[in-house]
Amino acid sequence: MHIPSKLRYFFIFYPLQAAALLAVLFRFLRYNNLLEWDFPGHYAAIWYIKTHLLPWPTGWNPYFYCGYPQGLFYPPLAHYMAALLSMPVGIGTAIKLLILVSILLLPVAFYAFARRWGLDDLQGAVCSALTTSVLFLSGEMFGTWNFGSDLRSILNIGLFANAISLPILFAFLATCGKVESRNWKWPALWLGLLFLTHPLSSLIAGIFALAIVIHRLWQPGEQPGWRPLVHTLGVALLLGSFWVLPFVTHRGFMNPEYVGAEWSAALELVALNGAIVALACFSKTALRPLVITFFALANFILLGTLWKLDLQFPRLTIYLLLLLPVFLVTWIKSKPALLAMALLALGIGYFGYRHGGLHPEGVPDFQFPDFGLVEGRILSVAPPSHLPAHHVNHELIPLRTGNEAILGLFIESGLNGRILADLVRTLDLGAYIWGTPTESVTPQLLGKEYPAYVLERLRLFDIRYVYTDLRLEDLLDPSLAKGKRYINSYAAPKVTSQMQLADLKQRYNTHGEMVDFYLYPIGSGTLAEPLPYVPLAPGTDWKLTNLKWFLEMRGLPIFTDRPAPPDVRPARPGDQVELFVDSPRKDRLILQIHADQDIPVLVKVGYFPNWKLTVNGKPAPIYRASPNLMLVFGHGPAVLEYRRSWTEYAGLVLSLLGLALLVVL
Questions:
Q1: pTM of the predicted model, to two decimals?
Q2: What 3-state class would DSSP assign to 624?
Q3: H-type helices in 618-645, by residue range?
Q4: C-alpha dihedral sign at 138, 144, 147, 152
Q5: At 379, is the secondary structure helix, strand, or coil?
Q6: What is the pLDDT of residues 54-83, one digit of tens each?
Q7: What does the radius of gyration of the chain's CA atoms come to, in whole angstroms?
């Protein structure tokens, strides 16, 4: 086979990089059960698309947070592709195949990215090898959070969409704004796909596009026309409108999280020296957009941390590291020095593999039986040291039993996420919570009020069962011991003192060296509750009032976002509400409100503006009830229905328009 001379070193280096990656990926493909960290959450999202949403990738998901709009705040393309691919091969295999293809494409994308900046074949191949070696490093090696797009984050933390987006991002960086190219279609396609795949990769692409604009404004006489870049950005935005437009419109209904950069001294050292090397490259005109990108991204991370913007800034750090090889290799011309750099890449990759915490096999299999359908929702509570994998039980409850859980992976997508996390921490201060800050009170602080305090909050969310290893009979009510049902056991955490062992056995269900998980029936409940009072509208900041109310209020009389209609009375003892679920997605609820006058009815389903209400066949308003549930006023027949907003249909039309422009122009 004839190998083009301009690609000779690429074809030598790529098999070596692919072999190194396959040595890790083979064990991932063969042994990983996708039960570690975020994998079950992605699996559950794919399962829900496949089972309930197709052909749409978005819709109402009732299984977490009392319901949330899946795919609206987290781009749905990765999950949608996996759902389609799972039709012939199954969900697990689809996830693994997409990760396999994405990771094996990375050295190709890294090489194209390097060549774009004027590096020759050997330089590009070495640069690609160095960039690939960075993937073997992990945030934990630097004493910080996981990076998000390294191999450990992908294969162990389970950041599935990150893996899909990374080769697309570098394909965009390799093609957008090239001086010698007038072809805007490929970068437009890559950027449009990024919008639909992952928000952080899209952010990096946006910073890069801004850097190109700054560079062209800086030296207007040396730059090509603006039309290709305008076409790229305009058509890409159209392609991504299916997600971008609904996201921008409804972003105020997110539960976003701020996580500062948390740079350790080691990372600060790398960033500082990287900035020096990048600055040295500013003298090379061709590299200036990349230098501007590096400094813009570094400043965004630091200023965003300073201003506490709602973003997980540690997951942007790796993109700085992935830019550094170009800045280094561009100065090296001699073949022996470049081969030495290739050996350095081998050493970095091997060191990261040995010390970065990468375990592609994942966690051992464990038992989680199907304990059957139950009425109401199930809250799972346990410290991470008591579980075989972090927050795995939340997703396995719907996947293995078909019941509705409470927490889930996409906590930023559920308005009730922070409040529900507070509830979990109120039961067990050491319970694992991710993605949101928490506030909670302790049994010691509440004293005798503690059982009633917890039970009324469980009832608020129609939580009728708690799956936990806590001894709830000692914590809440001795009678709970009679109804609890054994489910399964996990290995108990290792303790270092007799005092810790005594505390473990006193607070948790244990036998031998195992912690035992039970399903505790907490009490009866209802999804729609007539209220014996008319809720007030405080008119204060909703979020702050919610947090204070949930932590401090006894009895939990709800409040609402605006005053109630004037002709409403409180529900009386004889007033009742019947509720019928008219859809497996629980996006259509039929109520029969038995009262002679309009009364307030709390519907314990997550509030979102896409819900529409008719009472006696006429449209009626839905009120937002604390913390983020639905309140309706009426009597007689009523129907609650979740409908896609105009922004989703408009976004779809605009995406199709972008695709048409990509074809015809």
A1: 0.95
A2: strand
A3: none
A4: positive
A5: strand
A6: 999 999 999 999 999 999 999 999 999 999
A7: 27
Residue 179 backbone dihedrals phi, psi, to 5 degrees: -65, -40
* Residues in contact with 184: Cβ distance below 8 Å, sequence separation at least 6, in sequence order: 227, 228, 229, 231, 232, 235
Separation of alpha carbons 598 and 631, rounded Å: 12
Q: In whole angstroms, what is the distance from residue 202 CA to residue 194 CA?
A: 5
∠ at Cα 312 (91, 175), nearest 5°? 70
Q: What tens digit of pLDDT does each residue of 530-560 get?
A: 999 999 999 888 989 999 999 998 888 999 9
pLDDT (0 to 100) of residue 336? 95
Give the orientation angle of helix 317-329 with respect to helix 335-355, to 10 degrees.
160
Q: Are 589 and 617 in contact (CB under 8 A)?
A: no
Reduced DSSP (H G I as helix, E B as strand, rest coil) percent helix, strand, coil of the chain, to 5: 55, 15, 35
Q: What's the rounded Cα separation, in Å, for the pair 124 and 134?
A: 15
DSSP string, 513-551: TEEEEEEEE-----SEEE-SS--B---S-HHHHHHHHHH
User: By C-alpha distance, which of 352, 336, 403 is closest to 375?
Assistant: 403
- Give the Cα separation of 37 and 146 in Å (integer): 12
| Lookup: tokens for 187 | 């970068």
Q: Which of 166, 168, 34 is nearest to 96 (CA)?
A: 34
8-34 per-residue burial string, b: 16 or more CB within 10 A, e: under 16: ebbeebbebbbebbbebbebbeeebeb
Report d(CA 52, CA 46) in Å as an integer.
10
DSSP codes of every residue in 117-156:
TT--HHHHHHHHHHHHHHTT--GGGGTSS--SSSHHIIII
Q: What are phi and psi of 511, to 5 degrees?
A: -150, 130
Give the position of tokens 């346990």.
382
